[in-house]
Amino acid sequence: MNPCRPRSIRTACLISLALLTGLAGSPAQAADKWVSLDKARGQGVFQWDNGARYEGEAANGKRHGRGTITYPDGRRLEGVFSNDDIVSARTTRADGTVHDGSYQRGRANGRGSQTWPDGRRFEGEFLDDQPMQGSLQLASGQRIEVDRRMVLQRQTGRGVFVGLAGERHEGSFEAGSLQGSAVSVMLSGQRYEGQYLQGRQHGSGRYSWPSGQYYDGEWQAGTYHGKGTLVMADGQRYEGAFVAGKREGQARVTWPNGDAFEGRYAAGVVAEGRMKYASGQVYEGGFDTAGYRGGPGVYTWPSGQRVQGNYVKGRLQGPGQLAWANGDRFEGDFHDNEPSFGRHIAADGSSREVDRRAEASGLTGRGVSIGAGGERYEGEFVEGKRQGAGVLTWPDGRRDEGQYHQGRMASGRIAYATGQVYEGGLDDQGRRHGRGTYTWPSGQRYEGDWLAGQYHGKGKLTLADGGIYEGDYVANQRNGQGVLTMADGARYEGGWLADNYAGQGRMRYASGQVYEGQWLAGQRAGRGAYTWPSGQRYDGEWVAGEQQGQGEMVFADGDRYAGEWLAGKRQGSTRNEQANSSRQTERASESVSTGQVMASLFGAALIGRASGIDGGEKARLITGFVSDVMGDGKGQATRAASAEIQAGRQQAEAARLALAEQARRMDEQRRAQQQLQQQQQQQQSQRQAEQQAQQRRQSTAQASGSTAPQADPLLNQLKAQLSPAQAAQFQAVVDAEARRKADAARAGQSQVVAQAQAQAQSQAQSQAQSQAQSQAQSQAQAQAQARAQRDAEEAQRAIDEARRKADRDAEQARKKAEREAERQAEAAAKAQAETEYLQQLRSTAKLRVMNCFGEIHVAAAAPKAKEVVPCVDLRFSAYCPGSAVPIPGLLKNWIRYDGGCYGDTARIPKPVCNYKDLRLVADEATSCR
Fold first, then answer.
1. Which of 17, 339, 414, 871 could form a disulfide with 928 if both were Cys (CB 3.0 to 4.6 A apart)?
2. Whether 252 contacts 262, CB under 8 Å
3. Helix extents (H) in 648-748
4. Environment class of residue 181 by beta-carbon count within 10 Å: exposed (0-12), middle (13-18) or buried (19+)?
5. Residue 175 · residue 156 · CB < 8 Å
6. Burial grade of 841 (CB within 10 A; 0-12, 13-18, 19 or more)
7. Is 694 helix (H, G, I), strand (E, B) or coil?
């Protein structure tokens, strides 16, 4: 009975048997003789006819005592003999296997040990040269308790067999062979659970691999046979029949990507069937022995396109038919999947010739090719490919004329059916590339650089309306520096980004205005100067095309405004320099800062009481003063909010303080206004009393014939509060009024009385108007304060949101930076550790040279440092004495040196000196490549 019946363990078991068979044993006895025998000394030499030789002690003509046998195959046995029998010995084979232990009947029996070249070592019981039970230490250092008694002793019943390869079988045995149910586990992790017959898998069972691959089904004589399921490590799943370990008959195969096959296998390869791809395409037909589509077959697409013909190595060759989804079809010959010669029949029944035999035959020279789409090429070919000068015309009228290379047009002229024309270079995908010119029927024209079918580089675009752009392009968009001259005469010169003005640039508009400064997304943004033909000029900050921020406006008449702007309008603090004295008179009491609100209101009150100014002019001036006060207050709040939002978190606190100060000042203004109204009411009462007294004096003066004007203390008080020019004008009005009143007095007492009544009525109306104006001013002031408060609240909310967003962004940036820093630190630490480890290995490597069966090998002792790099290559140099010429060598995947010629060694050329005199130097240790 063969102890190595199980297929899964047969290789390891046979190796064990081969290594042990004939380690000892007595040489043949025929024609054997003592070459020399010294009975007195008890020493002799015995020679066998097969070449074996014994040297050692002898007694009574027999090998007795200590001696050595050498065999022709290189074995050497040193041991103790008794009456020609080996009692105990150490046997060394030519391959390095060493056995040391007791012997019986010329074979290793009883206690002993054995070491193999691959690093394994067994200590325990032997039976007829076979390790039977004991401890096996693997090359990796792992220990396994070996128990081979069930096989070697040919036992029957349930038991456990642990082999020399680490395999473990647990189940039913019969005469030393597995029989019935058992579980087998290999040291590599493979596992079989199922039925055995005479030591081989037979019946049903499941075999699995650590990679995830497994077979579950029927077995016969140790191979797949019958129905079964085989799942590969990559997820491929086969369900069907097997014969002698190969796929055979009907089966279904699926792949993880969704591909599926149903059909027939023969001798392990697919023969015919239906293959449905995850993309929806389907092939039905035959296959060749290499797995390619072969023989008659039909291939269909989800769109409805269908091709039928004969396949050779996966490609259509010979007669066939191709039908498109739109109803068109081709009937004729195919070459390498492409229609070669035949007819293209349209859905409407019309047909045209297809002739691509030039390509199919590998033509070199001039020829004609007509494609399935109706395209016609006439020109030069090289080995069946369009090469050289040629013309390609398309059914829609397009014409490609130029130089062809490897079947594609490389440069030339393309006239499109729509009227456009391109002249220039093309890339290997037929896209416009390099220098080229593209012209439209409208007259538009681009001339310049191309990349992958797009404007890219320097170029000039002439528009149909006469406009011209000349400058930089990136991916079909104006990017970089460029000049745009528009049809209406406007001209822009400067930076571009994504087809818009961007960066620094100068725009001269058709109307004569000029802007020079910064742009963003096609709008004025940043710092810039705008000049009008009249000489008016603004120099300052811009946002979204409008003045916003700090700026200075110089008007054509010399007026100048410098300060804050918002949405194109002046805001806040100003500095006015008037060059026109008449405009200065009209703006007698115009405010210059929020701190002069009281002066503005008082000026409005003076104008309201001035009887020498007509009603329309008076209303215009008063409205101007009130609007100035309200606009100034609102502008302060809006300006503060805008500035704080732009400044961000760093100025948030300053904005809050500014808003609080603004509210305080508005409150002070409101209280001052109330005080002013009280003063005006008191002055009005005094004025009424003085007017009554004045009327009495006038009546007396007129009665006496006097016309001299009398001084009015109130007028003097009012004039004292005006500038000289305003006082002069005001005095002129008052004098005129006095003269008019004197004339009226001379007209008669009745008219004086009527005038007094009219004046009293006018004064009453003036008082009512003044009160209404005061109420309007108070209401306007309250509205302005409310608007300012709302603006301040909105600004504060915007500031808070900006602060929160900035905090979130900062926190995210911090965390990202920390993660990146940690990753870089880990990578740097790992790289540093690997570098130091490799340097340590190089500096501590202990190299040794040896002669291994006539070849010179170099090995390095195993490193004692803790492993950091799992796989290491060690480069070294060997030098003969007195020579500076190195003999280079490489220890690949250096792990350890086991003291023999079978470890991780490197073979080097034989040196000119004695190999024992070589000087070995470790040059570099690197991770395995």
1. 871
2. yes
3. 652-703, 713-720, 724-747
4. middle
5. yes
6. buried
7. helix
Instruction: Note whether 344 and 330 are within 8 A (CB).
Output: yes
- Phi-psi region for residue 902, left (φ > 0), alpha (ψ -120 to 50) or beta? alpha
User: What confidence score (pLDDT) does residue 611 get?
Assistant: 42
CB neighbour class for 23 (10 Å; exposed up to 12, middle 13-18, buried from 19): buried
For range 143-169, the mean pLDDT:
89
Q: What's the chain's average pLDDT?
A: 80
**Alpha carbon distance 624, 614 (integer Å):** 16
pLDDT: which is higher, 823 or 438: 438
Whose structure tokens read 């739109």?
A: 326
Strand-pairing partners, residue 45, are 36, 55
Q: Which of 534-543, 694-703, 730-739 has the highest mean pLDDT?
A: 534-543
C-alpha 455/C-alpha 469 separation (Å) is 13
Tokens of 831: 């790289």
Instruction: HSE, CB side, 13 Å, CA atoms: give it for residue 191.
Output: 8
Between residues 791 and 864, the one the model is more confident about = 791
Q: What is the mean pLDDT of residues 468-482?
A: 94
Give me the torsion for CA of 389, 395, 398, 401, rounded to 10°: 10
CA distances from 712 to 105, 190, 690, 715, 719 (A): 159, 125, 9, 5, 11
pLDDT at res. 915: 80
Return all residues near 122 (Cβ < 8 A) that are at least 6 apart.
113, 114, 115, 131, 134, 135, 136, 137, 146, 164
Token pair listed for 486: 């528009």
Cα 714 to Cα 717: distance, rounded to the nearest angstrom:
5
Residue ranges per structural domain of the chain: 352-585, 586-690+787-832, 845-927
**Tokens (6 digits) for 360:** 């199919």
Q: Which helix (H) or strand (E) holds 828?
A: helix 749-844
The upper half-sphere exposure of residue 295, i.e. CA atoms within 13 Å in the direction of its Cβ, equals 12
Give me the residues paired with residue 315 across strands: 312
The rounded distance, in Å, linking the Cα atoms of 469 and 272 is 64
Residue 830 has pLDDT above 90, yes or no: no
Report the SS3 class of residue 791. helix
Within 10 angstroms of residue 782's Cβ, the number of other Cβ atoms is 13
Given a contact cutoff of 8 angstroms between Cβ atoms, the answer to whether 600 and 769 are in contact is no
Cβ(301)–Cβ(322) below 8 Å:
no
- Here the tokens at position 852 are 């291994």
What is d(CA 513, CA 536) in angstroms, rounded to the nearest whole number? 10
CA dihedral 59, 60, 63, 64 (to 10 degrees): -40
| Two tokens, residue 575 | 């500095």
Cβ density class 298-332: b for 16+ within 10 Å, e for less: ebbeeeeebbbbbbeebbbbeebbbbbeeebbbbb
- C-alpha distances in Å from residue 601, one per residue of 149, 435, 587, 615, 737: 121, 72, 13, 18, 25
Name the band, by pLDDT with cuts 50, 70 and 90, for residue 755.
low
Question: What's the per-residue H, E or C state across 851-916?
Answer: EECCEEEEEECCCCCCCCCCCEEEEEEEECCCCCCCEEEEEEEECCCCCCCCCCEEEECCCCCCHH
- Tokens standing for residue 8: 């899964």
- The mean pLDDT of 574-587, rounded to a whole number, is 41
Does pLDDT of 365 surpass 60? yes
| pTM above threshold 0.85 | no
The pairing of strands 282-287 and 269-276 is antiparallel
Q: How far apart are CA 496 and CA 15, in angstroms?
A: 79
Token readout for 57 is 């002690």
Q: What is residue 187's predicted lDDT score, i.e. its pLDDT?
A: 86
